[in-house]
Amino acid sequence: MPADLEVDTVVVGSGPAGATTARVAAENGARVLLVEKKQELGAPVQCSGAVSSHALAEAGVPVNDEFVSTPIHGFVTYESTGESVTVDYRGERDEALGYVVDRRRFDRYLMTMAERQDVTVWLKTEARGYARRPDGNVDVNLSRFGEPVTVRARVIVGADGLQSQVGKWAGLRTHIRLAELASCLQYVVDGVETNGLLEIVTGHRWAPGGYAWLFPKGHGYAEVGLGVARTMTKDDARTHLKRFMRDSFLADRLADARILEIQGGGVPLAAPLKRQVADNVLLVGDAARHVNPITGGGIHTALRGGLIAGRTLAKLISERIQPTAENLSRYHQEWMAELGAAMWKLYGVKADIFSRRTSLEDRDRRLFGTLASYFRPDSEYRKI
Amino acid sequence: MNARAVEFSVNWDACIRCGACVAVCPHDAGFTTAFDTIAVDTACDIACMFCEQVCPVTAITSRHAEP
Description:
By secondary structure, chain A is α/β, with parallel strands linked by helices.
């Protein structure tokens, strides 16, 4: 069957990782098709939207009112009792440390940046599978508004999130252990005061295997949420969140909370995938588990992974190198050098804290200590 | 068929379409619905039940599959 379109790369999924991979590959000369199964990006929202200024700068994403919900100036880290450590950068630096973004607008902004680099974008288009061809390329089977379309490409990029199907098609082991997928729920609320700081509440009592948070959302709104490891509790995230809002030391501040939006999902507090490439296939973002295993933050790691993937792909294509697993492993190597090694180290810290050998008291103490020092100006992890 | 095989149901009024159930599912590709959930009304002979457990809003239930 003749292909309906021929490109160098099909990127599946237009989140931060996919859109950045597409944009950077196109900037460097590749012909890119970016497909997204939804009709609008970013929703349902599964993310608090916190991202550092340096992450945006590094990925060449200008700070824009279109997607910024509110600037962030520091952190408060709480023990389960309410004792806390505050790091507030106001007075020391003029510019914001980071932002809470609106993922719907942010994801669309990143897609627009890609489209302006001549990436072809197809919405309402779902990838259904691919077949390798004798010439070393692939035919990617798509369903566009329900109609089958075949696109010939050299490489298919799986930027299709936690539930990545592209990874499974390629035989990569993508499913996450229950113990390492935090089950998260957050409410966007009105009636709760915040002060430009990300507030993080540790303690097995409130969020076993994870933590709870209270973030500013701009316009007088806030986000209150938590993530739990279901191997450590019989209750679901919603039950824990109700308990946290009612019984914790923040209950007074949350007493008038009125829920405007309900958001949630799984956040991998896991190791990155050991294999992120296969013949003609490369994974980025959540699909490759590029998520900070301590904070659960995934925007920076998605943007950074997208940069590396986009650059590697463009080079491979311009040099006419066969996109075999072996040749694509260049991406994995560069990613390891720039980001991966540090993420593996963080995973070691995380695994140690939540090890079965660690007592609950010790877990609480160490998680608090790790997160409190994580955000200090001199922290070795700040740039991850 | 495995005696432990189960069939899942999703309470669509509770589901927040987050896909966490698919992320922990050890099945091969395709054990999904168009709404980012694990497959429903299809026998699952792994029956690890991780999808039920990871759901933030307990929207997934199961029953033994008909032999």
